[in-house]
Amino acid sequence: MIWLIAGREIGTRLRSKAFRVATVVSVLILVGLALIAKLVGSGPSYQEVGITPAAAALTGSVTSTATAIKVDLHTHAVDEATGRAQVEDGKLDALLVTGTSPIQVVVKTDLDDGLQSVLQLVAQRTVLDQQVTELGGDPAKVAASIATAAVTVTPLTPPKNSNSQQLILGILTSVLIYMSLLLNGQAVAQGVVEEKTSRVVEIILATVRPWQLMVGKVLGLGAVGLIQVAVIALSGVAAGVATDAIDLHITAAFSTIAWLIVWFLLGYAAYSLAFAGVASLVSRQEEVAAVVTPVMMLLIVGYVIGISILPSNPDSGFVALLSLIPVFAPTLMPVRLALGVVPAWQAAVSLAGMIVVIPLLLWFASRIYSNAVLRSGARVRLRDAWRAA
Amino acid sequence: MTRQLEIDGVSKRYGEIVALEGITFEVRAGEIFGLVGSNGAGKTTAMRIVLGVLAADAGAVRWDGRALGPDTRRKIGYMPEERGLYPRMKVAEQLVYLSRLHGMSAAAARASVDVWLERLAVAGRRDDDVIKLSLGNQQRVQLAAALVHDPEILVLDEPFSGLDPVAVDVMSGVLRNKAGSGVPVMFSSHQLDLVERLCDRVGIVRQGRMVAAGTVDELRAGGPEELIVTAPDAPPGWAAGLPGVTVVGQSNGSTRLSLVDGADDQAVLRAALATGPVHEFARSRPSLTDLFRHIVSAPAEGEPA
C-alpha cells in the first residue's frame, strides 16, 4: 500500500512542471558556473614574449626567472620586424630587442606587472654577471649558490586545512542541500494540504491508515528528491572536472557527493516528517506558509550560519557544535564535510543524533497527522492534534 | 441467515458534543437501507465509523458476524459527504489508483475502470484532469470511485445531493443493481421521497440514536392512522359527536379524522351518509415525510422543544 502511494507521488512529481524547471535550472546554473570559472580562470594567464636574435642569450634566464617567481610565460624566437608586427597585432605581449642592460622591451601600450618583475630581475642578473666576471669570478657558481639561499617559514598557527577548491565545494553543497530540503519539504507540505483541500483524503483513509498515507507521500517525494539531488550534484561535479574548474581526485569528488546524498536523505527524512505533521493542521494552501514557517526557520538559520561563517572560518567551534545538533546537522554537517574539517567522531555523533531523532519525528508527525488530517475547516491547534487520540 | 452489516451500540463524542449515543441497526445483504435524520443527527459520523475513518468510543461494527477489520473495510465502496478526488489527476488514472488501494490488481483495475466509465457515461473524459470536468461529471467519477473495485458493501453519504434528475435515475439504477447482486447498500439522504421509493428499509436517526427502523410500510403503520371522509354536503361539525373520533381537519368537503383504538369506523360512515353522498372513505397512513417531521420535531428528554 505504501509503495502504491509512493508510486503515485513519484509519477505526479515527475510530471510536475515546477519540479522539472527547478531541476533543469539548477543543473544549468552549476554547469554555467563551471564554464564561467574556466573562462575567467584561464584567459590571461600566459604572457607571450618575443625574443629577437640580439636578445637570444637571455632566453634561458627569462624562462628560469619566470618559473622562480611564478609568472607563466611562453617565449618565441622572432626577428625584430616580425616581432614588432606581432606586438602590434596583440599576438605578443612583449618583444625583447636587446640582450644587454638596459634591456629594451617593445610593448603595445604597457608592460604586464609580472613580466616587468621578471625582466627587472633578468636585467639585474645581467649586470651582476658582468660585475662578477670583471672581478674574476664565475657567474655560474654565484648563480648556483644564490639559488640555494632560502627562507624557512615557521607558522605559529597551523594553516587552514581547506583550500579554495574545497571552499567552492562547501558553498555549493550548502546551497544545494538547503534548496533541496526546502523545495522537497515544501512539496510534502503542499501535497498533504492538497489532499485535505480536495477532501480526497477521506476516500484514501477508507483504505489505508493515516500514517501509511503520510509515509508513502514522504517516501515517494523523497525518492524523486534523491534523484534530483544526485543528478544536480553529479552534473555539477562532472562539469567542474571537465572544465578544470574543480581540480579534485575522483575519490574526493565522489565522497563529497556521497556525503551530500547521505545528509540529504537524513535531513529530508527529518524535515519532511515535520513539514507533513504541521501541514496536516491546515486545510487551505494559503495557510501552508504560516504553519510551516517555524520549521522552515530552523532550515534557514542553519543555512545562513553555514554560508556566512564557514567560508571565512571553517574551523569555527560554534558551527562545529551546532552541526552536532540534529536540527542543524543536515544544513551544516555536509558543508563541513565538504570543507574537510570534520573529525570522525563528530561525523559519527551527528549521524547518530539523526538516527535517533528520525523515528521520534515519525511517531510525533504520525500522531499529529492522524488526528488532524480529517479535520477540515479552521486550522487545528497543535496541542489539540496532539491530545486527541 | 443472510449476511448483514451490524452497527451495534456505537457511541462517539467530540469533546462535549455527543455525536452518536449507542446507535444500533443492521443492513442486510441485498437490501437498500436509507438513513435519514436532520443535519447533525449523526449519519455522517456513523458512516465514517463504519469505514474506520473515525474510531468509535464504544460499540462494534460487524460484517457477517465478524468485527470489521482493515481487510474487509477495503472491500467497502464509500462516497463521503464531502466529495473529493485529486483535482490534477486524470480520471482513469485516478480510478485505477483508487481501485488498487482497495486491493485490485493493476490489470483488473484498468478493466473495471473502463466498464464503469462507460456505464456512467464519462468514458469520453477518461484522460482529462478531474478539475476540468463539470460538477455533474465529477459526481459520476466520484460514484465510479465508490464502485470500481467491485465492493462487497456500499456506504454512500448523501449520494443524491447535487445530482440532476438523469443522474439521480442512473444512481438509483446502480444502487438497485448492486443490491440485487447481494451487496448491502446503505445511504443517507434528505430527499425523503427518493428514500421512500428506493429503500427496502429506512432508519431515522435523531441525536445520535436510531429512533425508528423498518420497511417504509412498517414505519408508516407505526404512525398515527387517519380516516379521510369526503362528503361534500356534510356541515361543519358533523363528526364531532361520534365516540372515539377527533376531527383533525376539514377542507373542501373532505374531513380528516383520527380514531382511537376500537372506535367504530362504520359508525363514522353511517354518520357521513346521513349528511348526503360520500365520495371517499379511506384509511390513510402518513407519508415518510410526515412521519419524519413528527419524529424529528418531538422534543427529546433534556432538550428544549
TrEMBL record, chain A:
It is a multi-pass membrane protein. Its main location: membrane. Residues 17-366 form the ABC-2 type transporter transmembrane domain. It is found in: Membrane. The chain crosses the membrane at residues 21-40, 167-189, 218-242, 248-276, 288-310, 316-335, 347-365. Keywords: Membrane, Transmembrane, Transmembrane helix. It comes from the Bacteria. This is ABC transporter permease. It comes from Paractinoplanes globisporus. The lineage of its organism: Bacteria, Bacillati, Actinomycetota, Actinomycetes, Micromonosporales.
Automatic annotation (TrEMBL), chain B:
Keywords: ATP-binding, Nucleotide-binding, Transport. One of its GO terms (molecular function) is ATP binding. Residues 5-232 form the ABC transporter domain. It comes from the Bacteria. Belongs to the ABC transporter superfamily. This is ABC transporter ATP-binding protein.
